[in-house]
Amino acid sequence: MPRVHSTRDREEFSVVLKSLERNRGIKARWIAELTALWALRISDLLAIKTSQIDQSFNTGEFVIIESKTKKRKVITLTQHAIKLLDEMRLTFPNDVYLFESRYGGKRRPISRKTVWRWMCEVEPDVIKWRRSCGRLGGVNLGTHSLRKSGSRLRQQAGVSLEELQQLLNHSKPETTINYLDNNEQDLVDTFVAGDKALFG
Hints:
Blueprint: H1 10-24, H2 26-38, H3 42-46, H4 50-59, E1 61-65, E2 72-76, H5 79-91, H6 112-132, H7 144-156, H8 161-168, H9 173-180, H10 183-199
Antiparallel strand pairs: 1-2
Helix pairs in contact: 1-2, 1-6, 2-7, 8-9
C-alpha cells in the first residue's frame, strides 16, 4: 500500500475539510477535525462511544486504550473539541457511538473503509486547488492523512518533536521523525525550483 500524505499546510487542510463536508456531509468533516485534533488512528476515533464523551464534559478529558499499541492515551477537550462535540450531541442526541452508522439497522460505528473512501474522494479537489494557486504534485490521501496532518500542522506552528512524540504515543523519536517526513510532497518544490534554476 502506498504511503499516505499529510496536507502541506493549514490552507490545504481546510480544502480537505470543505471537500469532505460538501461530498459527504458534516459528519465526515467532524471525523476529519477530531482525528487531526486528537491525533488518533481512525479505528480508535470510530470506537469512541457517546457515553465516554458525556463523562468527559465533567472532567475535561477522557482516556482510550489504543487498539494498535494497547497504550493508554489521555485526550484533553479543547475549546474547538467542545464546540464540535456540543454540535454533535445536539444533532445526533440518541447515538451510541460518537460516529454512528445509519446503515443496516444495528448500532455500530461508521466503518474505517467508508472513511477511507471519503478521503480518497477528496484527492481531486486538493489537486484542483493546488493547481489554482500554482502548486504542483499529486496527493495520496487516506484516513491516516488526518492524523499526519494534525501532527505536521502542529510542527509548523512550533510544537517540538518531543511533544509530538508524546501526542502520537510513539516510543522513539525516530518513529515520530519518520512519521512527520513528507519527502514525496516536499520534493515537488525541488522540481519547481529546477524550472527556475535551469530555464529562468
